[in-house]
TrEMBL record:
Protein name: ATP-binding cassette domain-containing protein
Family recorded in the similarity comment: Belongs to the ABC transporter superfamily.
InterPro entries documented for this protein: AAA+_ATPase (IPR003593), ABC_transporter-like_ATP-bd (IPR003439), Metal_Ion_Import_ABC (IPR050153), P-loop_NTPase (IPR027417)
Acyltransferase keyword on record: no
ABC transporter domain boundaries: 182-404
Keyword terms, alphabetized: ATP-binding, Nucleotide-binding, Transport
PANTHER family: METAL TRANSPORT SYSTEM ATP-BINDING PROTEIN TM_0124-RELATED
Taxonomic superkingdom: Bacteria
Species of the source: Maribacter litopenaei
Keyword Cell division set for record: no
Transmembrane segments: none
GO molecular function list: ATP binding
Amino acid sequence: MKHWGIFTDNKTNKKELVRKLEGNAYPNVLNLSGKNGRLFSQLALKMFMEEEEKHGTKYLSNEGQALKTMSSGEQKKALLFYILDQQPDYIILDNPFDNLDISFQKVLKQLLLTQADKTLLIQLASRKSDMLPIIHNFAEARDSELYPVNKEAFNTVEKFSQLQGKIPPPIEPIEFEQDQLILFKNVTISYGEKHILNDIHWEVTQGEFWQLIGNNGTGKTTILSMITGDNPKAYGQEIYLFGNKKGSRESVWDIKQKIGYFSPAMTDKFRGRHSVENMLISGLLDSIGLYVKPTESQKRIIKDWLILIHLWIKRDVQFNELSLGDQRLVMTVRAMVKHPPLLILDEPTSGMDDTSAKMLVNLVNKIAEETHTAIVFVSHRKEPGLNPRKILELKPSKKGSIGNIHVS
Ligand SMILES: Nc1ncnc2c1ncn2[C@@H]1O[C@H](COP(=O)(O)OP(=O)(O)OP(=O)(O)O)[C@@H](O)[C@H]1O
């Protein structure tokens, strides 16, 4: 079987590419005439979720659990098993390993390699290292066309990922005297009979660089949501944020003031038309749009940030028109511009190509080295080059995940 790998980067219009592939628009490179295919991607998941919401039909149901309450890894597993059950002629795999923990990445790889005897695989990959070993035909998507290339054509990472200069200072640092930012004491969480977290002890102090890791469904997002204020399960637990017991004195607003937060889902909030420069200035002002004229010093700081991440040249471009990788960089900077005591980055590199991911990793390392902000970086991947000093690893057990701490 002649499987194909298509290299995409964060500039590729993937929706269009998938639509054209399904419509057999590239018969000279990849002829799919008369074949029936399935799509393994975030987009397909979104459609199933909408279907579930509108009609209550649970095609991917996992013991009756609604798709939207599953963790991102659980959703992908459910979709994969559904697709394999349909026995399609071909499967389009859009960055299949994103959001999956290492052990399931291995399972998925093995399943796909077994499937490769009977099903044509078309893998869209923005990371060269992700490409399945049975793929020997490669193409690159450019300007809505598909061009055959060799594997080596995909190597520009180091050249473009270096940062220019130092992390710009805050305009007014957020004053915070106390050393301890987060304290979890004996935190135990369940949903009905389902045990999620078991007796978690975790302390984060000023300036520390943490990575939070754990297999799919072990409770990483649950922990983050208890810090950022969105999870009612936090109340009644011994959780202290910035010196106060959660749910006591400080309001959610007070807590959010001290936290810079970015998760890829947030980019959807910025649907309006904002230039890149205004996006960052509004981050200094805690608003989504820009309603106040920025001062000269605010503009200067934002200029330095944009130079640092190579985007000064795109300052007037609409945020929505940036590539996915550039959007993630801008959002990460936006979360950091005020130098909050705590910066939380939730799977910031998922879906990013190698070059953008490397640039983001360089940026996070630099923030850790040059500022007093503590970082909590959540990611399944061992991001090459990321230098966290401490790791909280969630390990599943019958009574819910326990937390192991590793210090380097
Ligand atoms: N409302 C809910 N009802 C039932 N179970 C839930 C609910 N919300 C979360 N869960 C379960 O809690 C567990 C932990 O989910 P969480 O999203 O925190 O995991 P995660 O470690 O972030 O996973 P992933 O890496 O896959 O994103 C999952 O098994 C999930 O199905």
